[in-house]
Specification:
This protein is an alpha+beta fold. It is built from 10 helices and 11 strands. The strands form 2 sheets. Strands 1, 2, 3, 4, 5 and 6 form a 6-stranded antiparallel β-sheet that branches. The radius of gyration is 30 Å and the shape is elongated. InterPro entries: MULE_transposase_dom, Transposase_MuDR. Pfam families: DBD_Tnp_Mut, MULE.
């Protein structure tokens, strides 16, 4: 069904018709006649209709994108500038089309033509579901589920968004979404000095060692390794754990990788008890020697502890 307002083809002449309308109150009265788009509408419940008002074209384009992805249709923007946007279905033979532009009558953007519904078949892959769109969908999920894996994200998109996403798209989208949620990993390294100082302030007699690599004074320091040992953990080990220590190293997931070295004991409930940890670039004689030297300085010799 083709639904079109008088303004759609008269984009230029509209200015002549509305030239005499300059009163803001008049504009507000006219705006009340038309439905306004609900920006809080959740995915799958987005409604579009003729004469619907939008605060700007960015909101309109997002609404059109979410609307079509939700119903499994592929479209394209064929007219896209600062004053108007037109979108059409990509499928051959489908007449679906929508047009939105500035309206002098209501002093905002309005849908002036809407040809619906889609007559093409539903699909489960959509070119409009690009990296930025996928990442935006994942932001809230990652905030509530920080350990979400790529497989979890794939299943979530299939279940909650009705689309199939390729592996490389999932990886790129999750990387961007995590950057939005957690901030840039690279920039977070700059906060390690402050982090260690805060730990020292709140945990007296504890040990926090940060080592950096700086070839010349002209270059900024880069992270090398970090050692963390809380005094409370040391006292707990001495007071209630068996006098045996296990050492382990594991790979860290993330953009910069690295390895986690740890020293653990066993408490009276047969549970693992962490004494100290360190983040290093890789396991080596040098990093293990550095870790054990720090550990020995914190817990002391066995003979010293009775």
């Amino acid at each position: 069904m083709v639904i079109s307002s008088d303004e759609e083809e008269g984009y230029i002449s509209e200015e002549l018709v509305d030239e005499c309308i300059s009163d803001d109150d008049k504009g507000e009265e006219e705006k009340a006649k038309y439905p306004e788009f609900d920006e809080k509408a959740i995915f799958g419940d987005i409604q579009l209709q003729l004469n619907m008002l939008f605060p700007n074209l960015t909101v309109f384009k997002k609404a059109v994108t979410d609307y079509n992805i939700a119903i499994g249709r592929v479209f394209k923007f064929v007219k896209n500038d600062n004053e108007r946007v037109r979108a059409k279905c990509r499928s051959e033979g489908c007449k679906w089309e929508i047009f939105c532009s500035w309206s002098n009558e209501v002093k905002t953007f309005k849908i002036k033509k809407f040809v619906e519904p889609h007559t093409c078949a539903r699909g489960f892959k959509n070119k409009q579901a690009n990296k930025k769109w996928l990442a935006a969908q994942l932001v809230d999920e990652l905030r509530s589920y920080p350990t979400m894996s790529a497989h979890d994200a794939f299943e979530w998109f299939k279940r909650c968004r009705g689309i199939h996403v390729d592996d490389y798209q999932i990886y790129r989208a999750m990387k961007l979404a995590r950057k939005i949620v957690e901030g840039s990993e690279k920039l977070q390294y700059q906060k390690l000095w402050d982090y260690c100082e805060e730990l020292r302030r709140r945990n007296p007699n504890s040990t926090f060692g940060l080592k950096v690599h700086r070839p010349t004074l002209e270059l900024p320091p880069t992270f090398d390794r970090l050692y963390i040992c809380f005094n409370a953990n040391v006292q707990g080990f001495k007071a209630g754990c068996r006098p045996l220590i296990g050492l382990d190293g594991c790979f860290l997931k993330g953009y910069y990788g690295g390895q986690l070295l740890s020293a653990v004991a066993q408490d009276s409930n047969q549970h693992f008890y962490v004494i100290a940890v360190a983040v290093v670039g890789q396991e080596s004689r040098d990093t293990w020697s550095w870790f054990l030297t720090n550990l020995l300085g914190d817990i002391g010799q066995y003979s010293d502890n009775g």
